[in-house]
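re: that chain from earlier
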Amino acid sequence: MTVSAAPMDKSVDTIPMIFEAKPDAAPGAKFCTINVKPAEPPKDVVVASAVDNDLDIAENGNQRSYYTISEKRLPVAVTEEIPVTINLIQPKVPILRNGSMNLKITAERRNDYKGAIAIALLYSPPGIGNPGTVQIPEGQNEGTITISANGNAPLQKWKVCVVGSADFGKGPVWMSTQLIDLEVVDPFVAGGLTRNFIDQGETGTMTLKLDQKIPFEGKAKLVLQGLPQGVTAEEREITKEDKEVRFPIKAAPDAQTGQARQLFCQFVLTKDGEPMVNTFAGGGILRVDKGSVAQK
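^ sequence. v structure.
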């Protein structure tokens, strides 16, 4: 059996650890301890470490348990093989601040097992949001977990993994993927939308002033979002040289009138076949007025 874990950053108090048994590992159980040591100088400093695992022997619903013990050793066991192995695909690109990413999970099924598999991110690094538990549906071999990074997510690499659970006939059994690297980086562009108005049934433009932060190769796609009902906008493409973008917009004759105050832009840059996505320029305003046809 082997254990995989990344160094614990000083900014967090939790990290994921993966225990893995080789195919030829003999079934058995053992009590283990966990020892830590500094990853940076001075490395000769002794750091006190121990297992401290509280176990509720007699529970009391959502109240404090009737009887709890504190276990000072970690019980680890090798059991019979389960008919599913899940794998987390290493992304080829980082996640952008104020952006999102789809993590792909594959399932290798054996012994004709076709049941659904619940999957979830075991550990969310600071500033990373996740949807909780999702499903790999019955009979399927792939699932997706969409994660997001807020504007203050630390700019560094983290180790993450996905855990799964399924019932093979004897109750829920838990499993895990391997650890992968998840890197958080700054967005490539920033900017602001210029306030504008449009009449029902007419066409117009929304102007985006760009602030290029990090040069990128190729073209990126920009999508104007948050538009009122009945108003559409064409997508635009930019390069690292662009300073301004004009989105052609069109209002239907029955478009919702009034001010829309939450317009924003979505940035999509594809690298190595995978998208890097984030949003920016929030708070744009578009006013839709009654058209001349509607007033008659």
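The CA atoms of residues 169 and 208 lie 57 Å apart.
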